[in-house]
Amino acid sequence: MARIAGVTIPSEKQVETALTYIYGIGPKFASTILAAAKVKPTTRVKDLTEAEVSQITFEHRLPSLNGGCLLA
User: Fold this and answer.
1) Contact 11, 38 (CB under 8 A)
2) Looking at domain 2-65, does it have CATH number 2.40.128.280?
């Protein structure tokens, strides 16, 4: 199981769906995060590499580091 933003996301779900388990992330924001991280939305969480999890975590934190503005 991957842990992002202090939340353990389900490993059997597709990553785009699993990200919505995190408070504040809806389908649109999940898609934006995955596009910026260059991760396929249909990848299962259990198949993510450590580098992909790190990139998703970085992209999730990016808007808060830029004053809440999405760079999409």
Assistant:
1) no
2) no
